[in-house]
């Protein structure tokens, strides 16, 4: 049941984000290819490099090091769009980067994960993402619901009152998903946090800072910098867990992804709180 309800909940969240967007938002994103290119660079190159430096610098155990690299290889998570929206960031940029990095993941993930297995564990196993499942998930959970919401908003087929109701329900669903993640993964997090938690937290903070810095480099406004920071910091932990448990048959490699999922939501809520407080002060 959970395996069905969770994707449906995520799809509804993306639908609600689509209701707040217009085609002009995506046209504006396309006029900034430098932002898209830097976001892709951060996800595919800088994030795995940072994870490697952390794993090496902190002398993580081989399994923890590979698990951290698996997480870093994953594209941005679906919830990055919701967090960006709640933090008053540029949602269209976040969604565009999620789609772009998810498509590139078919090539980048096998290379990074395979290289990490060889480097840290001397394992020559090869990793292949299930193309049909991954592409189908991207379309059904992200692109289709966002497109439907965008179409309804663009054509005026949904009123502001109904759209606001959808946004409130989606926010509630997002909070429930976060709480469910905490509750279901708490035993594993509590057991392994002392050894893996500092590395996961450091990776999260450094990648968010990298995203914000890259946004400043190309002179994005605050909303654009938030989108890049969230896209870099909110990884697709579910994919990392699936890679470790189902494709590699090594649950121990999933531990960093489980702990990171917990930590990234805490830091994301902190960013949301700061951004909304600043917005309230500026418009108070």
* Termini gap: 44 Å
Low-confidence stretches: none
Q: Give the overall shape, derived from the CA principal axes.
A: globular
CATH class label: Mainly Alpha
Describe this structure in words.
Helix 5 crosses helix 6 and helix 6 packs parallel to helix 9. The chain contains 11 helices and no strands. It has one domain: Na+/H+ antiporter like fold, CATH 1.20.1530. By secondary structure, the chain is mostly helical. The chain is globular. The model has no long low-confidence stretch (mean pLDDT 85). It is found in: Membrane. Keywords: Membrane, Transmembrane, Transmembrane helix. It is a multi-pass membrane protein.
Which helices and strands appear, and what pairs or packs with what?
Layout: H1 2-19, H2 23-30, H3 33-57, H4 62-73, H5 79-86, H6 91-121, H7 131-154, H8 160-217, H9 222-233, H10 237-247, H11 255-282
Membrane topology: Multi-pass membrane protein
Organism: Denitromonas iodatirespirans
Keywords: Membrane, Transmembrane, Transmembrane helix
Outline of this structure?
It is found in: Membrane. Helices cover 83% and strands 0% of the residues. It is mainly alpha-helical.
Keywords for this structure?
284 residues, mainly alpha, Na+/H+ antiporter like fold, 11 helices, globular
């Amino acid at each position: 049941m959970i395996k069905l309800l969770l994707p449906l909940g995520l799809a509804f969240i993306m639908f609600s984000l689509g209701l707040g967007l217009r085609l002009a938002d995506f046209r504006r994103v396309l006029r900034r290819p430098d932002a898209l290119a830097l976001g892709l660079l951060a996800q595919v190159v800088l994030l795995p490099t940072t994870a490697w430096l952390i794993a090496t610098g902190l002398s993580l155990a081989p399994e923890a090091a590979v698990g951290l690299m698996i997480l870093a290889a994953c594209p941005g998570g679906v919830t990055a769009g919701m967090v960006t929206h709640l933090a008053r960031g540029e949602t269209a940029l976040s969604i565009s980067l999620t789609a772009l990095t998810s498509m590139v993941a078919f090539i980048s993930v096998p290379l990074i994960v395979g290289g990490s297995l060889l480097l840290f564990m001397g394992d020559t196993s090869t990793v292949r993402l299930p193309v049909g499942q991954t592409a189908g998930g991207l379309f059904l959970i992200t692109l289709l619901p966002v497109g439907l919401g965008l179409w309804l908003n663009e054509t005026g087929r949904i009123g502001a009152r109904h759209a606001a109701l959808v946004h409130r329900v989606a926010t509630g669903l997002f909070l429930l998903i976060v709480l469910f993640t905490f509750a279901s993964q708490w035993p594993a997090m509590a057991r392994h946090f002392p050894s893996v938690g500092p590395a996961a937290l450091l990776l999260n903070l450094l990648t968010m800072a990298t995203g914000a810095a890259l946004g400043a480099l190309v002179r994005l406004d605050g909303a654009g910098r938030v989108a890049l920071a969230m896209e870099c910091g909110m990884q697709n932990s579910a994919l990392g867990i699936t890679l470790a448990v189902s494709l590699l048959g090594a649950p121990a490699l999933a531990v960093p992804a489980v702990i990171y999922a917990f930590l990234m939501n805490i830091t994301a809520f902190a960013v949301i709180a700061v951004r909304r407080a600043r917005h309230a002060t500026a418009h108070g």
